[in-house]
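Incident log, structure service

09:12 report received: a user says their structure output differs between two submissions of the same chain.
09:20 pulled the input from the user's history:
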Amino acid sequence: MSNKYTVIYSSEARNDLRAIYSYIRNVLKEPKTAKEQSVRIRDQIKTLDTFPERNIHVDWEPWLSMGMRKMPVDNYVVFYLMDNESLTVDIVRIVYGGRNISEILK
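09:34 re-ran on a clean worker, output below:
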């Protein structure tokens, strides 16, 4: 039987999720899509409570040394750290995948 992890959002990740929703709703003028996209991202993040090791590590420093993992969700990428001792998954950032992610996350 596998352990259940507690998923915790950083304040930056919460702001990222709000910004994604706001951009789709207010700039693209797609309120239904904004809600659906936000729900899909949150639903995928919830699945990290079991087997969060399933996603690959990022391939740039210093995040590689920190053990940062990334999970694609549609056109977005969720970055997170996991701690096997405390059984937590910390959602660090949620970023649109079409941007220069390594530059954004410096």
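09:41 both user submissions now match this output. Likely a transient worker issue. Closing.
09:42 reviewer note: The first helix runs from residue 11 to 27. The chain has one domain: 6-95.
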